[in-house]
């Protein structure tokens, strides 16, 4: 009897243990369910990426991908019944919503005539979240010991692509059209593009990665986060490709992949930490009301008057991606200069980021806010001007995203208020005084600590 392979965050055919398990059992129906609960809150860039990635997957399946729309708890058992499937195979989802949804689908399948098994193989991570424990049997709360245990645990070699007989006879509702992005070019989605990107990064950028990864003005990082998010490539494949590469670049890159696993592990152990502070005692009171809303809007639209913040926020709206250094700067600005809750920023990021992932994103926000694991101490307040001058020394990054400042040469672009003619026309004045807000943030922190 045929089996169903339900694709979710694993939109590839190589190194795919759930496909291996499904193909071993007989013919395979490749299924994708467009879930309104995930599709609804996604911004246009995220939607465009998903649709195009699925188009690539469909092409590599010879046009056989079956797409159904609706609640997976109803749709998956219905497809399994239509096919009289022997099993439904998935890559286990470690996220909060995904675990909950999968438990409900599993229960619905078990209750259906024939009690169809729901088979989980592997996860989107090198080491399955929830696996590693410290010496006293508890989950890790700090990165470095987690990384040591992660390296000791290791991971299997990439699984070869199995010979697969695909089922052809089930109707598909098709994909929605990809939203029009108004001329913004996204990189190519899909498995083939992900593998090409990885090879190019390994050849050209990996040797210098450790030093170059902090420069938003230049291509120094892999840009693989979105491919990893949709599972167009599995971290196992990347880690296998790093195994014989010596040097600091490879070591640092391996460590970044470990951060991704770590944050998934933290969320797996503490599902509440998606939206609640891991350390509530460290959560500094934030502002509400009309002024807070105005400031939030200025931040979200990239008109704070601080060039690196505005460049980052405009890049987010335009491209659905922001360099890691700039994510930290804009997040710090929201929490410590504007005194707004990290959850507001995390929600905005998740809506727009094409790599938007509740584990990496929300734990990243908690890190900046000082409430998470290994948290940056709250008293560390990023200075948007010195961060700009240090990490975008010629100002090229700012000029790329802030057209009003394109006429300003060099690093002067980071302090337009010092220009002889004042702030160029059309660019906003600073909405706050950084030095004063830094003092305010520190005072709130001091009060919290009594
Ligand atoms: P590279 O430097 O090439 O790193 C390689 C891979 O390692 C990345 O693709 C990613 O999978 C992983 N990685 C790197 N840094 C981190 C990190 N700090 N935490 C977890 N994994 C990491 N990453 C996401 O994938 N999705 C998010 O929604 C997300 N939101 C973030 C929000 C904030 C406030 C912050 C500070 C960071 C966030 N990150 C997120 C982490 C990081 O910014 C991105 O993974 C990185 O910028 C992606 O670019 P890259 O692929 O070129 O990274």
TrEMBL record:
Gene3D superfamilies to which the protein is assigned, alphabetical: 1.25.40.80, DNA Cyclobutane Dipyrimidine Photolyase, subunit A, domain 3, HUPs
GO molecular function: deoxyribodipyrimidine photo-lyase activity; DNA binding; FAD binding
Domain Photolyase/cryptochrome alpha/beta: 1-124
Chain positions recorded as FAD binding sites: 209, 221-225, 253, 256-263, 355-357
Statement: the UniProt record of this protein carries the keyword RNA-binding: no
BP GO annotations: nucleobase-containing compound metabolic process; response to light stimulus; response to stress
Keyword vocabulary terms for this entry: Chromophore, FAD, Flavoprotein, Lyase
Cofactor: FAD
InterPro entries: Crypto/Photolyase_FAD-like_sf, Crypto/Photolyase_N_sf, Cryptochr/Photolyase_FAD-bd, Cryptochrome/DNA_photolyase_1, DNA_photolyase_1_CS_C, DNA_photolyase_N, Rossmann-like_a/b/a_fold
Cofactor note: Binds 1 FAD per subunit.
Coiled coil: none
Family: Belongs to the DNA photolyase family.
Annotated protein name in UniProt: Deoxyribodipyrimidine photo-lyase type I
């Amino acid at each position: 009897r045929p089996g169903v392979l339900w694709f979710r965050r694993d939109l590839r055919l190589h190194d795919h243990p759930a496909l291996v398990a499904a193909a071993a059992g007989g013919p395979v129906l490749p299924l994708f369910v467009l879930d309104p609960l995930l599709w609804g809150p996604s911004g246009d860039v995220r939607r465009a990426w998903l649709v195009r990635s699925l188009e690539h997957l469909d092409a590599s399946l010879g046009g056989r991908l079956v797409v159904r729309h609706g609640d997976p708890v109803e749709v998956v058992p219905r497809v399994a019944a239509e096919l009289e499937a022997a099993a439904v195979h998935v890559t286990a989802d470690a996220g909060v919503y995904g675990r909950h949804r999968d438990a409900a689908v599993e229960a619905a399948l078990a209750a259906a005539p024939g009690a169809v098994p729901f088979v989980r193989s592997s996860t989107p991570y090198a080491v399955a979240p929830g696996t590693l424990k410290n010496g006293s049997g508890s989950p890790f709360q700090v990165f470095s010991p987690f990384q040591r245990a992660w390296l000791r645990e290791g991971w299997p070699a990439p699984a070869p692509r199995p010979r697969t007989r695909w089922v052809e006879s089930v109707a598909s509702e098709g994909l929605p059209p990809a939203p029009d992005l108004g001329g913004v070019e996204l990189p190519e989605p899909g498995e083939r593009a992900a593998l090409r990107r990885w090879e190019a990064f390994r050849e050209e950028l990996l040797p210098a990665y450790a030093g170059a990864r902090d420069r938003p003005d230049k291509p120094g990082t892999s840009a693989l986060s979105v491919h990893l998010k949709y599972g167009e490539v599995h971290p196992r494949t990347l880690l296998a490709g790093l195994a014989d590469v010596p040097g600091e670049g490879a070591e640092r890159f391996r460590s970044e992949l470990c951060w991704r696993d770590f944050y998934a592990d933290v969320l797996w152990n503490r599902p509440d930490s998606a939206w609640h502070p891991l350390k509530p005692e460290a959560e500094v009171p934030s502002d509400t009301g009309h002024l807070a809303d105005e400031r939030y809007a200025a931040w979200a639209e990239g008109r704070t008057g601080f060039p690196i913040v505005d460049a980052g926020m405009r890049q987010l709206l335009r491209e659905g991606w922001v360099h890691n250094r700039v994510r930290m700067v804009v997040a710090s600005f929201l929490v410590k200069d504007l005194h707004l809750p990290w959850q507001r920023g995390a929600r905005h990021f998740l809506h727009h980021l094409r790599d938007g992932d509740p584990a990496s994103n929300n734990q990243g926000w908690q890190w900046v806010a000082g409430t998470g694991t290994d948290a940056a101490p709250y008293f560390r307040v990023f200075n948007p001007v010195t961060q700009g001058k240090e990490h975008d020394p010629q100002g090229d990054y700012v000029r790329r995203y802030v057209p009003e400042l394109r006429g300003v040469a060099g690093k002067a672009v980071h302090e337009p208020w010092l220009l002889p003619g004042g702030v160029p026309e059309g660019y906003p004045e600073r909405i706050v005084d950084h030095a004063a807000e830094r003092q305010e943030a520190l005072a709130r922190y001091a009060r919290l600590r009594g």
